[in-house]
Amino acid sequence: MNISLCFLIxxxxxxxxxxxxxxxxxxxxxxxxxxxxxxxxLIFTTCYFFLMIEYVFSSVLISSDGLxxxxxxxxxxxxxxxxxxxxxxxxxxxxxxxxxxKKVVLIVGDSFVTGHGIKNISxxxxxxxxxxxxRDWEIIVIAQNGWTTADEYKAMVNYPLKPKxxxxxxxxxxIHSAAETNGFPPPGAVMWPKPYISFFIEKxxxxxxxxxxxxxxxxxxxxxxxxxxxxxxxxxIVWSAHKKELLNIISFAHQTGSDILFLLWPGLRNVDKTxxxxxxxxxxxxxxxxxxxxxATYFQGRQGLDLVINxxxxxxxTEVHLExxxxxxxxxxxxxxxxxxxxxxxxxx
Length: 349
Prior knowledge:
Layout: H1 3-23, H2 30-60, H3 71-80, E1 103-109, H4 111-114, H5 125-133, E2 137-143, H6 149-158, E3 161-162, E4 165-171, H7 176-181, H8 195-201, H9 205-218, H10 224-233, H11 236-255, E5 259-265, H12 271-287, E6 291-294, H13 295-299, E7 308-310, E8 313-316, H14 318-336, H15 341-344, E9 347-348
Parallel strand pairs: 1-2, 1-4, 4-5, 5-6
Antiparallel strand pairs: 3-9, 7-8
Helix pairs in contact: 1-2, 5-14, 6-11
């Protein structure tokens, strides 16, 4: 229920009760009357207090979390997750007629590209990069939260326009599709509460925040997912399947005459612990003569909280998006002089 409506209802009830006591309670038992008045005052004061807390947690203290399962995060998405274009991507519309003479870059990936936790898309690295490059360039985002390498490949194949430059954002969980297909489904992200608890925490922003805050504190040292990643990246069957997914993307780029660059993201909460994954990817890309930027090299040794949105959302913050945009700009600027405008021209499928 809307908080403002709750305030109105409680206020109306308070007024009706006060009038009722004044007009209808005519008993001479002053002690009983006073006791009831004090009790009702306590009840209404408590209601107002909790309504105020609910207002603060539902309208002021809203923030994203990495998996978007808290009420606060859902509220954050309602407020900030826009624009959404006609293809369902968090991006502006791109007219094929308007960009035929532009240098087009396709940025493909998951929530690291969509800007999970970034309030304004102008603060994403894709948009910052576009502003740096200028009007002669067009940055097109093809990304959805939770996408794996297999999803990204399908999206590129089905996109009606093919550019001459693709930036593929790779995160350490992109192996999920290959792992799950070969009998290694990822562990559940959270343990959901019992129905009788869930009923209350799904109705209150404050209770929801308190419950999941305590849940995270109790599970802060849990390494189940870290152990899972080590297992699947070191499993030859899974890794072989994942390499096929990656080669599909590389082959697609070659077939369409697109130049491709992989942007390798480590786990930002602990770069050093996940660098073995980006290093493994780096070796694979070197073997296949594919250009890349290994971000673990740039972020190594830095504190996780300096890189992420907040303590519950491990996506890159605005400062990291700005750094990555600078890296990509330098990379593109160093290569663009080698290519004629025709090299960049957008082609129909």
